[in-house]
C-alpha cells in the first residue's frame, strides 16, 4: 500500500505540472513543474512521508535502467553524432565548465554568508 500511495503522489505532482504547462503555455516541461510542486509540498509539510520515501528509494534502485534508451539512441544515431562531433564536444565542454563555474560561485557566496554557522 505505501508504494501505491507514494507513486500516486508522484504522478499527481507530474499531472499537476502538465496541467499548468498546458494551461499557461509554459516553455518548461510538465515533469519539471511537477518536481517544483512536489518540493514545495515537502517544504510545507516539513518532512518526507514514509510512503514517498519508500517509492523514491525503489525507483532510485533501478535508475540505471533509464540510461538504456539514451545509449540505444547514441548507437542508433552514431553517424549523425560523428558528423557533428566537434560541435557536440565543444557544447559538452563549455556547458560543463559553465556549470562548474556557477556552482563554485554559488557555493562561495553561500560559504561567505553562512560560513560561521554549523
| Total of helices | 6
The arrangement of helices and strands along the chain is: HHHHHH
Question: What percent of residues are in strands?
Answer: under 5%
| Contiguous runs where pLDDT drops below 50 for at least 5 residues | none
Tally of separate domains: 2
Would you kindly provide a brief summary of this structure?
This protein is an all-alpha fold. It has helices at 2-24, 30-45, 50-61, 67-76, 78-83, 85-114. The two termini are 39 Å apart.
Map the helices and strands.
Elements: H1 2-24, H2 30-45, H3 50-61, H4 67-76, H5 78-83, H6 85-114
Helix pairs in contact: 1-2, 1-3
What does this structure look like?
- There is one protein chain.
- The protein has 118 residues and is mainly α.
- It has 2 domains: 1-61, no CATH class; 68-118.
- It is 82% helix and 0% strand.
- It is built from 6 helices and no strands.
- Helix 1 packs across helix 2 and helix 1 (2-24) packs across helix 3.
- The chain starts with a helix and ends with a helix.
Amino acid at each position: 500500500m505505501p508504494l501505491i500511495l507514494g507513486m500516486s503522489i508522484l504522478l499527481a505532482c507530474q499531472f499537476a505540472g502538465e496541467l499548468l504547462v498546458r494551461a499557461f503555455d509554459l516553455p518548461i516541461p510538465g515533469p519539471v513543474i511537477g518536481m517544483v510542486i512536489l518540493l514545495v509540498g515537502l517544504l510545507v509539510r516539513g518532512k518526507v512521508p514514509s510512503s514517498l520515501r519508500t517509492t523514491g528509494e525503489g525507483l532510485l534502485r533501478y535508475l540505471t535502467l533509464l540510461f538504456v534508451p539514451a545509449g540505444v539512441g547514441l548507437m542508433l544515431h552514431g553517424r549523425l553524432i560523428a558528423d557533428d562531433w566537434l560541435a557536440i564536444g565543444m557544447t559538452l565542454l563549455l556547458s560543463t565548465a559553465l556549470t562548474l563555474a556557477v556552482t563554485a560561485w554559488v557555493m562561495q557566496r553561500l560559504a561567505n554568508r553562512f560560513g560561521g554557522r554549523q
